[in-house]
């Protein structure tokens, strides 16, 4: 795994006379030659600065995001497979101020939908030209979004369906006690009984009782089903500290 931080002093001295702060970019891609070529191309733009690059498999990815404080993160999602949504949600949570742009050779509509659900600002195919990518990078910093037209219709329909499903589940979640909601949020964070007990300062038996009540009230039989209902209803997992 390679991480590169470009010389900030050199960049800032170059743009010292410019009335703008360059957009800080983090490029995440397993093909280092791709990121090298892209960094070289983007360095020609005075308002864009590649602050660093790394791979999707880097175990320190989230720490790199927090440390570099990028304004925009580009990421190739093809190597992520079914973990696309999970990784993108983690990126968005690690640096909520940043705009995440998928720059990928992946044309899977399901992955694009997961990206939209995770809060990704744009999805750009690698086949698109560098000029279009620069336009998207600048646009997302202004609050704009971009998804391929052939994907956009289905994505909008599914997001609307998500809203409808969330409304259907609202009454169900209202039946949960505050402590049951705490346990459910911990489940959403991937935690198990003993860890939930330690975090909430309750016994494992109490966690099991709350879990049975949650399953009964949500009319589900597994943790995975409970988490799906919670997400559909808009329940948020506990915020991570640090």
> What percent of residues adopt helix (DSSP H or I)?
40-55%
Arrangement of strands in the largest sheet: 1-3-2-4-5-6
Order of helices and strands: EHEHEHEHEHEHHHHHH
The quaternary organization reads as: single chain
The total count of helices amounts to 11
| Total DSSP E strands | 6
Span of the ends, CA to CA: 24 Å
Q: Largest sheet, described in full?
A: 6 strands, mixed
Describe the overall structure:
This protein is α/β, with parallel strands linked by helices and about 240 residues long. Helix content is about 55%, strand content about 10%. The chain has a 6-stranded mixed beta sheet, sandwiched between helices. Helix 8 crosses helix 11 and helix 9 packs across helix 10. The longest helix is centred in the C-terminal third of the chain and has 26 residues.
Task: Set out the fold topology.
Elements: E1 4-5, H1 8-14, E2 23-28, H2 32-42, E3 48-54, H3 61-68, E4 72-75, H4 84-94, E5 99-104, H5 109-118, E6 122-125, H6 130-141, H7 149-174, H8 178-188, H9 193-200, H10 204-218, H11 223-232
Parallel strand pairs: 2-3, 2-4, 4-5, 5-6
Antiparallel strand pairs: 1-3
Summarize the structure.
The protein has 242 residues and is an alpha/beta fold. It has eleven helices and six strands. It starts with a strand and ends in a 10-residue tail after the last helix.
Keywords:
single chain; 242 residues; elongated; disordered N terminus
């Amino acid at each position: 795994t390679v991480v590169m931080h470009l010389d900030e002093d050199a960049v800032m001295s170059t743009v010292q006379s410019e009335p703008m702060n360059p957009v800080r970019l983090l490029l995440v891609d397993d093909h280092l030659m791709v990121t090298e070529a892209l960094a070289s191309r983007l360095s020609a733009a005075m308002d864009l600065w590649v602050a660093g690059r790394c791979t999707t498999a880097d175990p320190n990815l989230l720490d790199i995001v927090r440390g570099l404080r990028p304004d925009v993160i580009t990421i190739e999602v093809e190597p992520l497979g079914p973990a696309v949504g999970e990784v993108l949600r983690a990126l968005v949570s690690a640096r909520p101020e940043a705009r995440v742009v998928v720059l990928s050779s992946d044309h899977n509509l399901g992955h694009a939908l997961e990206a939209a659900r995770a809060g990704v600002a744009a999805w750009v195919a690698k086949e698109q030209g560098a000029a279009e990518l620069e336009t998207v990078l600048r646009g997302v910093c202004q609050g704009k979004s971009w998804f391929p037209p052939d994907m956009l219709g289905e994505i909008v329909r599914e997001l609307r369906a998500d809203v409808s499903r969330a409304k259907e589940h609202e009454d169900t979640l209202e039946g949960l006690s505050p402590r049951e909601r705490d346990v459910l949020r911990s489940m959403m964070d991937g935690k198990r009984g003993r860890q939930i007990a330690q975090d909430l300062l309750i016994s494992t038996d109490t966690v099991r009782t709350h879990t049975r009540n949650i399953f009964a009230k949500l009319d589900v039989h597994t943790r995975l089903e409970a988490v799906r209902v919670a997400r559909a209803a808009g329940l948020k997992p506990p915020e991570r500290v640090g």
